[in-house]
Design a protein that fits this description.
The chain is of the alpha+beta class. Helix content is about 35%, strand content about 35%. Strands 1-5-4-3-2 form a five-stranded mixed β-sheet.
């Protein structure tokens, strides 16, 4: 497989994770797409840096924002590492970081890099603008 083919296949796996797992709550697909030895180098608060922690985060986000979904603005791949810039959207209908539901629509930007090996996500590095979410929910000053 050429470098271009590896990169395109990796990008497709990440798009499926974004659209079908995060955006639709397809937990069976999560198990297919994530390696058992997955490592998150930048886990979110109260999340472990492993596969179970990633699934827990995804479930928490969908519980807090049942219409949670992302718009991918661009992706770039360098071999098996895919960097994605996207904006997440959702409506606050459940508990999030200790905040009771507000019914407010939120959005936040994320840049992350994920390594895909043999069709499975093995590593993650990322930055999410959760500060802006807390502002949008009224927990922090604008």
């Amino acid at each position: 497989m050429t470098q271009v083919n590896v990169s395109e296949a990796a990008k497709a796996v990440i798009r499926r994770n974004t659209d079908e797992v995060q955006g639709s709550g397809n937990w069976a697909l999560f198990d297919e797409l994530f390696a058992d030895d997955f490592l998150d180098h930048t886990p979110q608060p109260d999340c472990t840096p492993d596969k179970a922690g990633a699934l827990g985060l995804y479930r928490k986000l969908r519980e807090a924002f049942p219409d949670f979904h992302a718009v991918i603005h661009w992706q770039r791949a360098d071999g098996d590492v895919v960097t994605t810039y996207k904006t997440y959207h959702g409506t606050h209908r459940g508990n999030f970081l200790g905040l009771a539901p507000t019914g407010r629509a939120i959005h936040f930007e994320t840049v992350d890099a994920m390594r895909v090996q043999n069709g499975k996500i093995t590593e993650h590095w990322g930055v999410a603008n959760l500060y802006s979410v807390l502002q949008q929910l009224g927990a922090l000053p604008q």
